[in-house]
Design goal:
The structure is a homotetramer. Chain A is an alpha+beta fold. Chain A has three helices and seven strands.
């Protein structure tokens, strides 16, 4: 497993009229921790894009257990639990202190500039293998 | 089954640097069609809130098949397929013409003003029974 | 003056923990009415983009008088009051019934694919002259 | 003058189809630095809210000079330049390194729980006076 934890402070813009964080706003937080995970293993998403690769989201899932509120300090934990073949799955936990507020996952695949789904490029798999300690 | 279809035109603010709609922005569209469905069966969410009830999202899921783009005219189709007991599940399809771009679902439960999960109130179940033709 | 009025229903995702629409969310509504104004005079922004032109926002301003709430039906009124030379200014009013909730304006300039500011292209000025009845 | 600088990394969700940050998304960043400024002078906005006070935005303005991009590290600089009487004005600068990308300001007034505009409460003015070194 490879993993990374990003720190977030809830913005007022992320709340809704129920007084808590709007449910869709957890997905951008997942992305913040995913971006950080990729950067830490030497594969900044920004560079992947510049090299002509995209990693669109094929599937997204959230389980909401408890609400985050304005100005809360949260940890967003991203985990790639298994070495990917074609599809890449990342799991997430949103924590306030020790309390898990939300869990979820996203599934991704590589796409080239023409929007065609492709296998993960070799440099990606090699960096990933190194991060997985293989 | 009860259902409703909302019409949406993609806003520029809903796109991202991949040139397509950002994946999290489908969830607010689901909510637009859910709001419309509730209003059409005589249960405007706004009135539920004023009466002290909330219907927070417990679970949300999206499957992305094809991308929506700026200025696309879309149909957001919301379907309550089964009569709910405690939890309420709504399924969604996002269509551009005949093409299904995204499918998904949300799961909800009733909550009172104190944030305590409660059973759906009777007036809700009665209106719903009528809409289901029971 | 050329003008257009778009109809909006406030989404739950656009509210914040004060129970009203978050102030930044008026700018995407301005864009909805701006998009509609451009389309109505035969200059869909989508086609401008495909032709290699962009109209980035140089300046944006909002005056908030009264709050919009979830599920409100609003009119977003966009007005190009003067024929543009280099910069294009559009004024906006957000109305609930007869009540003006918010006013504002945006200022734009043409930019080519390389991000260089350019004069408005001739076909744009011609369509605009026709719309202004000149 | 009192001031504070917040650090931001641009999220993918904040970009648009022009490949840069969507113009409305600078306003939530202004709020991040405003929240930090208030907290640093001992007046966390969260506590103001709990005490029944709100500080809605009456006016917002942005001047866009250059674009921020995905994954950019930015500084959001908030400045209260003059001691407020009834209205509170805060100025902002968004910086990438030494380059100013955007400037802007917001104007606020105090409001009580009933939505009535009120003068700033004494404890607010006292903390502020201390922060201004008066």
């Amino acid at each position: 497993m490879i993993e990374s934890t990003a720190n977030i402070r809830v913005r007022f813009s992320e709340t809704d009229a129920m007084g808590v964080v709007y449910h869709a706003n957890y997905l951008p937080w997942f992305e913040v921790s995913r971006t950080q995970l990729m950067t830490e293993i030497g594969l900044p998403y920004r560079e992947l894009q510049d090299a002509g690769f995209m990693l669109p989201v094929l599937e997204a899932h959230c389980n909401y257990k408890n609400s985050a509120k304005y100005d809360d300090e949260l940890k967003i934990h991203a985990m790639m639990k298994t070495f990917p073949r074609v599809r890449i799955r990342i799991d997430y936990e949103v924590l306030r202190g020790d309390e898990i507020l939300t869990t979820g996952y996203t599934v991704h695949a590589f796409m080239n500039r023409d929007g065609i789904a492709i296998r993960p490029p070799n440099f990606f798999l090699e960096k990933l293998a190194k991060a997985f300690g293989e």
